[in-house]
Amino acid sequence: MNKRKLSFWEIWNMSFGFLGIQFGFALQGGFMSRIFQTLGAEIHDIPIMWIAAPLTGLLVQPIIGYLSDRTWNPRWGRRRPYFLIGAIFSSIALFFVPHSPALWVAAGFLWILDASINISMEPFRALVADKLPESQRSYGFVIQTLIIGIGTWIASNLPWMVSQLGVSDSAANGVVPMSVKVAFAIGAFVFLISILYTVFTTTEYPPEDMEEFKREKEKKNQFIPDILNNIGSMPLTMKKLGVVQFFSWFAFFTMWSLTNPALTEHIFETPAPVEANYNMDSEESVNEFQIANTAFQKSSNEVGKYMGVYGLSSMAFALILAFYTSKRRINRKLVHLFSLILGGVGFISMYFIPSPSWLILSFTLIGFSWGSILSMPYAMLSSSVDPKKMGVIMGIFNMFIVIPQVIAALGGINYTYKLIGEETINAMIVAGISLIIAGFCNLLITNKDAITYNPK
Asked: What is the DSSP letter of 408?
């Protein structure tokens, strides 16, 4: 099928739903550990409490990719129904998660939230490959990254912004502050509205051969065999990219799960107070606990604000690449290699910086790697797979994202960072080393079509 080149605004419209998806991911990644700690979780238990998220992605994305490949409605298209379903459930989960009365409830909402986000997210990756000719693939994924950067920055700052408007950061023991509750409610609204915008402003191409599509759709009991067959026959380039993805996502899962406890302890020196260390029958001790808890909540807002910087720098990265790739070719492999190494340096620098203001530099470097992770692997992959199987291939590719997260959650983070020392900040050093390894793994990729984008 000859696909026409799309304008910037057409690509923007089809990618705009990612603003809401990233609101969900940024609020989840920046503040779920804070919610867990507020509800009484110990630091060493936090990674395992995140395990529902990657496990959900491992199951959901290949299924949604497979189903969306086999879906067609003249009005709603192939991918858009899944955007909408995921957005509705994600918005509900985002609203209720900070109202969780207990740890197990919060962990359950995290599972629902991540499953719902994955339902929306996977078809967005496939939509870029569906809609754009090969000459615009890099450009399309970069525009997607630009929108993700905007969403990351705004959502990461939401609790701090809401707090500046006078909403309280203080709360009773075991209760999430109102500033976080309001931020998550805003995120729920933005998620739904942005997805609806894409659903109603974007059209999709019908299957190229409708008769063949109908025959494939009518085949019975093919789901598991098809998934297994596609896993077994994945291209060599996809396997090599999988190695890069493994170390990349181990690093970022470490960031999402442990940045808040690491930085509130090491940089801000306001760790989450442990109730067992206070005599809660004494009014004086209760007041001390409240003061320590409020300090932790305020420094957590600051951590979120600084984390938003990586969204800004990923946005700058995307803007530069968007202008460049609209007219010129790039070496995707080298761009990804150097971006990941810069991010690794950013993580490691957190251990050495003398004051919180230096976190701007650390997260700026991390943002370069994040911007590349969200665009370059998908651009390289989409150039080396069968376009008729783009949905299921993108879903299977997600295995290389979730497996490292599962390993990290099951003890990989705790084991590796404690090889360096007991302080939680050592987890950021592990994240940095992992990202640098990911960068050098790009040297494994040799497929010329995957490496180089040639404008036509």
From this structure: I
Judge whether residue 59 has pLDDT over 80: no
Structure tokens at 434: 């992992």
DSSP, res 76: T
Structural Rg of the chain based on CA atoms:
22
Q: Is residue 224 over pLDDT 90? A: no
- What is the distance between the alpha carbons of residues 289 and 313, in angstroms, rounded to a whole number? 37
CA distance 45 to 104: 12
For residues 115-143, give the mean pLDDT: 76
Residue in 180, 33, 40 with CA at minimum distance from that of residue 102: 40
452 forms beta bridges with: 331
Going by pLDDT thresholds of 50, 70 and 90, the confidence category of residue 350 is very high
pLDDT for residue 251 is more than 80: yes
Domains and CATH numbers, the chain: 8-451 (1.20.1250.20)
Neighbours of 401 (CB within 10 A): 22
CB of 322 within 8 A of CB of 143? yes
**Structure tokens of 207?**
């299957």
pLDDT per residue as tens digits for the range 173-202: 788 889 999 999 999 999 999 999 988 888
Residue 220: both structure tokens together: 């019975």
Q: How far apart are CA 224 and CA 230, in angstroms?
A: 10
Whole-model pTM: value is: 0.75
Distance CA 231, CA 221 (A): 17
Q: Which two tokens stand for residue 274?
A: 């442990």
What does the pLDDT average to over 152-177?
Answer: 87
| C-beta of residue 106 within 8 angstroms of C-beta of residue 100 | yes
- 3-class SS at 233? coil
Compute the distance between CA of residue 416 and CA of residue 172 in angstroms, rounded to an integer.
Answer: 35
Distance CA 244, CA 397 (A): 12
